[in-house]
């Protein structure tokens, strides 16, 4: 591609069409490519001027399809800056013009939207959108997983006349991978996956075995020698070793080998650090856009924290969870895990204390005197010190549980309303898939009730230990009103 000549042509056009948004957009894109995708701040500012989306994105309305490309590009920048929810809001607004977008832009925007939906744990919406793309682009569903194109073309010739053979093959590969991933996340465990010894297909095959509870085969699939070039941050924006080590950790965690799981998560963190240290995930000039936000550290730390908590190492687990809290503070499960770390530290410290109040005796008979053990030292909180400062104390645990209760109370009415709804004509982008709890799976009503029971029981225990007996009784009574309360809480 001759970006320099293209830029010169656009400069000439600007002399007569300086207010044409298409010319301004194309000029920004060409300048971005001329910088090897490194001047993303300048590109981001240009897209914000074209779309008018500045600051926190609450609602998005794309008025005409001519401006869709600028919105898509802004969403791509947000995605690389670890803001998938904001990017998804933009892409859902672009998809309102689904039937009016040209095929080339629809292929790019549609696959990107599916990718965002899967990354934010919304597989049903992703599956519906994939079906719409198949119908609109004339994609032959039965041919997508075939290794040969001799019998049936993947896409009819009319729908692929605007792209070259190379672009078509890239789209085919991307569509095949995203379709398999979507089907697996929607519970289709027995689907056929191409027998290719590449890292992409082996990871998907391992995921298929994992969903079928065949953990041994899942681990074997991930341990293969891959035939493709290793996926690296510098070339692809992701690190293959990081993903494999994390997935191996998840497999061992599922079979309750928590020590091995923790070791794999530690390896994943080291791989991630090594892969991203040259291309920092912060805004550093010189890093291409696809290297920004390439780190998987928050997700791995969440997994590592859970493994450490099962290994009775609450202080280390607390440090891991605390970092994850920066990017996932709306997750009630995460607040509960932090509180559980505080409770476990308290119980471990209590077990190490000498509970015998009598140290010994002096004298005998009527002159015998008992010598008492000194009282354990209790932490005195300075009046100027806030209890909100993160620490493995019951006071901070109480704050975590209060946040968890607030989040559950906020989501409960909508969750109940959606579970009782019988409307089958809901648009694809309005499907309810549970309460979002990224990076963990969204909560449906059953898992929501289980979490609520755990939060209320823990909160009542913490308040009772801190001497807040009235509030402890209140939450204990609320726990007892829960339907189908497990026997372990009675």
What this model shows, in words?
This protein has 19 helices and four strands. It is mainly alpha-helical. Among the domains are: 39-145 and 163-179, Serine Threonine Protein Phosphatase 5, Tetratricopeptide repeat (Alpha Horseshoe); 229-280 and 291-311; 332-350 and 386-422 and 433-489, no CATH class. The strands form two sheets. The protein has a two-stranded antiparallel sheet with strand order 1-2. Strands 3-4 form a two-stranded antiparallel sheet. Helix 7 (123-137) runs antiparallel to helix 8 (165-185) and helix 17 packs antiparallel against helix 18 (445-465). The longest helix is centred in the last third of the chain and has 27 residues, at 394-420. The protein is elongated. The relative contact order is 0.06.
List the helices and strands and how they pair.
Blueprint: H1 3-16, H2 21-34, H3 40-51, H4 68-80, H5 84-94, H6 103-119, H7 123-137, H8 165-185, H9 199-211, H10 215-222, H11 233-236, H12 240-254, H13 258-276, H14 297-310, H15 314-325, H16 332-352, E1 358-362, E2 369-372, H17 394-420, E3 435-437, E4 440-443, H18 445-465, H19 469-480
Helix pairs in contact: 1-2, 2-3, 3-4, 4-5, 4-6, 5-6, 6-7, 6-8, 7-8, 8-9, 9-10, 10-12, 12-13, 13-14, 14-15, 15-16, 16-17, 16-18, 17-18, 18-19
GO cellular component, one term: CCR4-NOT complex
InterPro entries: CNOT10, TPR-like_helical_dom_sf
Keywords: Cytoplasm, Nucleus, RNA-mediated gene silencing, Transcription, Transcription regulation, Translation regulation
């Amino acid at each position: 591609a001759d970006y320099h000549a293209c830029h010169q042509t656009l400069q000439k056009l600007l002399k007569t069409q300086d207010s044409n948004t298409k010319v301004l957009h194309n000029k920004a894109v060409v300048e971005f490519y001329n910088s090897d995708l490194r001047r993303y701040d300048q590109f981001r500012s240009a897209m914000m001027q074209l779309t008018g989306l500045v600051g926190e994105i609450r609602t998005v309305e794309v008025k005409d399809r001519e401006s869709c490309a600028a919105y898509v590009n802004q969403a791509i920048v947000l995605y690389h800056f670890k803001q998938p929810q904001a990017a998804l809001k933009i892409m859902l607004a672009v998809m309102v013009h689904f039937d009016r977008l040209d095929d080339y832009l629809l292929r790019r925007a549609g696959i990107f939207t599916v990718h965002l939906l899967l990354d934010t744990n919304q597989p049903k919406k992703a599956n519906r959108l994939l079906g719409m793309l198949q119908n609109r682009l004339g994609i032959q569903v039965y041919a997508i997983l075939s290794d040969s194109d001799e019998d049936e073309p993947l896409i009819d010739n009319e729908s692929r006349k605007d792209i070259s053979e190379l672009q078509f093959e890239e789209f085919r590969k991307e569509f095949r991978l995203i379709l398999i991933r979507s089907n697996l996340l929607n519970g289709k465990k027995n689907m056929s996956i191409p027998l290719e010894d590449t890292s992409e297909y082996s990871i998907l095959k391992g995921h298929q075995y994992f969903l079928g509870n065949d953990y041994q085969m899942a681990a074997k699939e991930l341990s293969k020698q891959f035939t493709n070039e290793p996926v690296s941050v510098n070339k692809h924006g992701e690190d293959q070793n990081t993903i494999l080590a994390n997935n191996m950790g998840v497999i061992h965690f599922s079979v309750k080998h928590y020590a091995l799981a923790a070791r794999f998560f530690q390896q994943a963190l080291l791989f991630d650090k090594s892969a991203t240290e040259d291309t920092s995930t912060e805004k550093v000039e010189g890093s291409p856009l696809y290297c920004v936000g390439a780190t998987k550290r928050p997700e791995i730390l969440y997994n590592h924290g859970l493994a450490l908590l099962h290994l009775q190492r609450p202080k280390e687990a607390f440090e891991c969870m605390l970092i994850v809290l920066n990017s996932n503070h709306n997750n009630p499960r995460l607040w509960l895990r932090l509180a559980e770390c505080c409770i476990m530290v308290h119980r471990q410290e209590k077990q190490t204390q000498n509970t015998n109040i009598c140290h010994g005796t002096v004298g005998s008979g009527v002159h015998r005197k008992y010598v008492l053990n000194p009282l354990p030292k209790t932490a005195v909180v300075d009046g100027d010190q806030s209890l909100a400062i993160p620490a493995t104390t019951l006071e901070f645990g109480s704050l975590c549980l209060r946040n968890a209760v607030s989040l559950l109370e906020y989501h409960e009415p909508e969750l109940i309303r959606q579970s009782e709804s019988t409307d089958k004509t809901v648009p694809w982008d309005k499907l309810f898939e549970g309460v979002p709890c990224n990076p963990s799976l969204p909560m449906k009503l059953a898992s929501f009730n289980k979490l609520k029971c755990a939060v209320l029981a823990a909160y009542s225990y913490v308040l009772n230990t801190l001497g807040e007996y009235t509030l402890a009784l209140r939450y204990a009574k609320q726990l007892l009103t829960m339907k189908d309360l497990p026997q372990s809480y009675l």
